[in-house]
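Example (one chain per record):
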Amino acid sequence: MSGPPNAAPQIAPEGTTQPSRGTILLIHGIGCTGSVFDRIRPGLEAAGWSTQAPTLFPEYRVSDNPPGHLSSLSLHDYVTAAAGWARAIIKETGALPVVIGHSMGGLIAQKLAEQGLVRAAVLITPAQPVDCQVVNWKVAFTFANILAVGKAERSYKVWRTGFAWGVLNRVPKARHAEIHAGAVYDSGRVYQDIGKPGTDPHRTCTVDETAIACPILTLGATDDRATVIEAVRKVAAKYARIGGDYREYAKAGHWIVDEPRRIST
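Predicted structure:
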């Protein structure tokens, strides 16, 4: 692991009883925290699941004045940290968790499935592995402030205009300022690992679907401007080859986890 160590997972106290359906590990996207799942966790827990929604590297990924160490983190580090959470759940409960990943978290979820650390994976508007990526002007505009600088050694927060237009386009405008204020800076190296996967020595964006033995569900949103529907459909087709399922939501955007028309739990 090339970056600084992540905080130790906080799991249920020893001796507590897990709900019969098991544990869901929720993995957030780039520039976000575990709070992105606050609207869907109550429904999952009411349905009998235990949920954990950690924020990866919360000591570095902050909303203002990020420390210099942040830019040393790579996508490989994020996958390693998420895998640590999955292993902690397995150790505590004796069972594999289900993983739900949003955006970059959807790509991390694919890696956890590839490693055999989960019993099912749900990919919500996921970032794509290298063989599913597309070039699209909507993505370029959403992340224009990052692409304009293009330095992996920097840290970035998606600009307000791009965030509103590309991420929150199906969220009422009255909530945009609040949501953007809660967004965090992220490592330029992570952006590069996703956008230019050939520069990543760990090849983190390469996923071997034939190594995945668990059920996998991909969810796409037709009005998504950050992980555009054309790319998400390619992800769905990749996993359809191993029996994966796909659902597509019309008139939904990238923030589908917290839009007026949210996905069903």
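Caption: The chain has a mean pLDDT of 92.
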